[in-house]
Model the fold of this input.
Amino acid sequence: MDNLAEMKRYLPEAAWAPTRQAIAGIVDDSEQVEKVSFTEVFGAPAYLIECVTDLAAVRPVDAGEGECRSLADEPSEWFDVAEWLDDGRFARFVTIGSVEGGPQYIVPRAIADQKRSVGLSVCMTAARMC
Done:
């Protein structure tokens, strides 16, 4: 998904609202918020994880080790954003890899429940941020 209008077609408001808020803080023209390219403002699109094997694409960079691993392999605390959205119906992961930002991954609860590393990563990231 490369803009908010597209994201809204697939996700409920509580799942896309944080992205809208971030864009509104960057884009001056409120009419453009729906259409602006995520790649232009964040440096990457947003991805909806549709099956457990897609979790292999969700890769934090582990600080200090420089090692990339994925949520398909094991949990990690090294996400810039890892949170539950929409009362836990979706998990969102963001890794900021450049000045523009980085990709965000939206994981539906049905998939998160199949891979323990998703929920653990949200908890581990939250604990590291405290």
About this structure: The radius of gyration is 14 Å. Residues 4-129 form one domain. The chain has five helices and six strands. Residues 82 and 93 are 5 Å apart (CA to CA).
